[in-house]
Amino acid sequence: MINPVPVDSAGDDPVRVGLVGVGIIAETHLAVLAERGDVELEFAVDPRPVGPVDFRGTTPPHYGDLAQALDTHRPDLVVLATPTETHAELAAQALLRSKAMVLVEKPLVHDLAALAGLRELDGKADVRGRLFTAHHFAFSPEVGWAAELIAANPDWGPVTLVTSAFYDPYVLRGAEAFASYVSSWTDSGVNQLSMLTRFVELTDLTDVRQTDGGASAWCTVGFRSRGEVGTARLLSSWLTGSSSKESSLLFGRSGVEVWIDHTAMTGFAARGSELLATFGNDGRTPRKVAHYRPLYASLLSGRPDPVLGFDAAATITGIHGAVPEVR
Ligand SMILES: NC(=O)c1ccc[n+]([C@@H]2O[C@H](COP(=O)([O-])OP(=O)(O)OC[C@H]3O[C@@H](n4cnc5c(N)ncnc54)[C@H](O)[C@@H]3O)[C@@H](O)[C@H]2O)c1
Q1: CATH at residue 154
Q2: Is the C-beta atom of 105 inside 6 A of ligand 1?
Q3: Whether residue 194 sits in one domain with residue 95
């Protein structure tokens, strides 16, 4: 159970947000936050000489580091959209030097030692009540559709096999991709795992093979579904020029298969030659906005979805972080 958070977006006062890291994903955070009348951007932080951040036609103060910003401002929410390996240290700083909620981009941490470091802050800061991870894939529309469909059809039996392939076009970004995202497993594995928590209870990492210097990975993960055990086969890779992400959930007992396309945000369910259900969208909402809009709605509701909370991040990190780094 996540404690109530110190943000009341239903109140009159706007939620004052500090954005740390003004890179690629920060654009989506800014776009979604700007839609919300209950939010103001209090400051932005980035050591790079990035252009002024525009937030609904205004430019908030900009700082070169988070400590400087927190000396001057009292944000309600600090958003960390920085390279993965900086998350743990910046999260600790935000927790100890402010009273704000802290939303950290996924993955929460880059290794298990960093997770232990954050856990040790409990007592000094309300880690469970204030620290959240942007497990945005769990909010993707096709994932929500499939989870509801499966919950409504208990006669399909347990999920017995999941196959998921996430491709990102990072091969041409070379060293820059490794600097921001560490490896394909570090970057995509956490999305695959957080997406899977909508369907099954993850138990353990059962096999790992990282190739292409960390640009590709094949991992298998055990899970429980409706009282039985199953296996998830997770492939991720940067060796492509285009993004493509798909997952299939097989219900071995009934022969039902649920196929979800995370790139198109579509899905269907079939049994043999019979089409059971389909899901599409009106094509108006960009994919990342479709993830972060419901994520922020949940975070700022006062009752954040447990998938954003520290316990979910710890479970996911336990499996995710068990894969050795390749570098
Ligand atoms: N790009 C995506 O589609 C995407 C999607 C979801 C999550 N993420 C996650 O978001 C994080 C950032 O990814 P990105 O693609 O935006 O990377 P990026 O490299 O484009 O941006 C990161 C920014 O953080 C800045 N930065 C570095 N150290 C900092 C510090 N100490 N304080 C403040 N700013 C600092 C950098 O200068 C850069 O501008 C990663 O953890 C990634 O896994 C990215």
Answers
A1: 3.30.360.10
A2: yes
A3: no
Question: Which residues contact residue 57 at a Cβ distance below 8 angstroms, ignoring those fewer than 6 apart?
Answer: none
Q: Which atom of ligand 1 is nearest to the CA of 87?
A: 41
The pair of structure tokens assigned to 128 is: 């469970």
Predicted pLDDT at 1: 35
Mutating to test ligand 1, I would choose from 19, 20, 24 the residue with most ligand atoms within 8 A of its C-beta, which is 24
Kindly tell me if the per-residue pLDDT of 7 is higher than 90. Answer: no
Q: What is the pLDDT of residues 99-118, one digit of tens each?
A: 999 999 999 999 999 999 99
Domain range enclosing 247: 137-285
Give the end of a domain, one of 87, 115, 134: 134
Domain end marker among 88, 118, 134: 134
Q: CATH no. for residue 83?
A: 3.40.50.720
Same structural domain for residues 142 and 272?
yes
How many domains, the chain?
A: 2
Does the C-beta of 19 come closer than 6 Å to ligand 1?
A: no
Indicate the average pLDDT of the chain: 94
State the pTM of this model. Answer: 0.94
Write out the DSSP string of 243-273. -EEEEEEEETTTTEEEEEETTTTEEEEEETT
Distance in Å, CA 79 to ligand 1 centroid = 11
Ligand 1 atom closest to 187 (CA)? 43
Query: Looking at the domain assignment, is residue 106 inside a domain?
Result: yes
Task: Tell me what pLDDT residue 10 has.
Answer: 52
Cα 312 to Cα 305: distance, rounded to the nearest angstrom: 10
56 sits in the region (left: phi over 0; alpha: psi -120 to 50; else beta) called: left
Q: What is the pLDDT of residues 137-161, one digit of tens each?
A: 999 999 999 999 999 999 999 999 9
Q: Is the CB of 21 under 6 A from ligand 1?
A: yes
Instruction: Report yes or no on 295 lying in a domain.
Output: no
Task: Round to whole Å and give the CA distance between 159 and 223.
Answer: 9
Q: What is the pLDDT of residues 239-262, one digit of tens each?
A: 999 999 999 999 999 999 999 999
